[in-house]
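ARCHIVE CARD
Drawer: 12
Card no.: 0347
Subject: one protein chain, sequence and derived structure
Cross-reference: see card 0346
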Amino acid sequence: DDVVREYGADSLRPYEMFMGPLEQVKPWSMKGVEGVSRFLARVWRVAFEENQAGEWVKSWKIQDVPCIDKALLKVVHETIKKVTDDIAKMSFNTAISQMMVCTNAFTAAEIVPLNEFRALLHVLNPFAPHLSEEIHARLGGGAMLADSAWPQHDEAALVTDELELVVQINGKLRDKTTVSKDADQATVESIALGTPKVKEQIEGKTVRKVIVVPGRLVNIVAN
């Protein structure tokens, strides 16, 4: 009751599930409750911002547009899939961890597509029903999330089209770059040699060899 009064039931419930596997004994920690409360506050701040009068208004980042950010779309559908699977396995702690990852992705995004954000609210709903329903309603949602069909993940959105490669010069990490997973060796070499940090490091030097380890790294030998 004390926790509910100070932090709300929506903080207490996820905290109890976030402590760890249900079958294990866990120490109670008020810092943990505060951490979950901050997570829920981040979800709120994705949707709303304070105006000069101190009122919460819809954030300009929330837009009813298709999601063209493939990385963000991938995180959203990973979250739908993992939360769905984890609820079935009663692995609530890892479901909450994934929702935190998704919230961070929305926080970092330049634009937050409304449809994808609603998917996060939907999978959060069993854990924090008051907050998720309030946000959903304020964003113009119709039927309550609890009465709506559970979202389904899209397998196509989980497929990675690009890879992140480490770029080394003489064995030392100098940069990272993203390439298409289907890029040939010549393309990978060209992209690695063209990154600003690499160009700066090899300026005035002769590139002796470029070693490509597919899917992992590019090592440039220069002196």
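Annotation on reverse: The chain has a mean pLDDT of 90. The two ends are 68 Å apart (CA to CA).
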